[in-house]
Amino acid sequence: MIEMLTEMFSYNFIIRAFAVGILVSLCAALLGVTLVLKRYSMIGDGLSHVGFGALAVAASLNIAPLEVAVPVIIVAAFLLLRLSENSKINGDAAIAIIASTSLAIGVVCVSVSGVNTDLNSYLFGSILATTNADAIMCIILAAVVIVVFVLFYNNIFAVTFDETFSRATGLKTGVYNTVIALLTALTVVIGMRIMGTLLISALIIFPALSSMRICKKFKSVIICSGVLSICCFFVGMCASYSLDTPTGASVVLVNAGVFVIFWIIESVKTRIAKS
User: What is the mean predicted confidence (pLDDT) over 101-109?
Assistant: First the structure.
């Protein structure tokens, strides 16, 4: 095991992947709890499809992909939020409309331009696709997400658990819902290189759901979710390296396995409590 880790960290691209991946895992875990509790858990999936569409257009026009994806995904996050709050279209339907349209645009662009090799790494994730420039940009965006979440933690907590009461007390719930949408958009952007656009939503959902099986307080759930997410990413990366499997898929499978274990633990605890 030690020899494998030593060999892994002798490669610069793996060091970059770990640096970005740990930050992505932490950001996704912080936001995942809020998104799941607010029933916005599928927004990550919708935004990832928007990301694929943006990346496909950028690749077909020979433009830097992340520079295009960042503003497009942020705009999509705001649009999804507005559709969910102020429209007759409910949240799930709004996500489905925007996600399917963006995916269709991406497929058409790929088909017309013939660009597909690089986009595969965005769809399914690739540690080889993370350049130094991408890593620096992702680290900066991740730092912004973490700092903003910590600064507005109390207000995000209030909006998450009782938005109606928070609004009645004078809290600008619309502003903090927008902050949550913005942070989610940035998390999706920085996770696309490692996890892929089709798998990043799993990194948002699984750690939160696993933590909720054994933790009951908001802060303890967030802490547990963050620790689980980072550990699952580390194990998934090691499994991907040793078994030569796709990085994103390996991380998701580890998260899924942990969720099953925590679900079993919760079931056992419940049965013991009732007996």
Answer: 82
What's the CA gap between 175 and 181, in Å, rounded? 10
Q: State the DSSP H helix or E strand holding residue 215, giving kind and residue range, or none if neither.
A: none
- What value does the CA radius of gyration of the chain take, rounded to a whole number of Å? 19
Tell me which residue of 222, 239, 177 sits closest to 32, measured CA to CA. Answer: 222
Structure tokens at 227: 């620790």
Q: Taking each helix axis from N to C terminus, what angle separates 43-60 and 200-214, rounded to the nearest 10 degrees?
A: 160
Please give the DSSP secondary-structure letter assigned to residue 172. Answer: -
Q: How far apart are CA 98 and CA 195, in angstroms?
A: 21
> Does this model's pTM top 0.85?
no
Query: What pLDDT was estimated at residue 180?
Result: 83
Looking at residue 202, its pLDDT comes to 83
Q: Which two tokens stand for residue 167?
A: 């609004």
Per-residue model confidence (pLDDT) at position 117: 54
pLDDT of 91 reads 61
Q: How far apart are CA 56 and CA 115, in angstroms?
A: 8
What is the rounded distance in angstroms from the CA atom of residue 239 to the CA atom of residue 36?
28
For residue 266, give the H/E element and its range.
Answer: helix 247-274
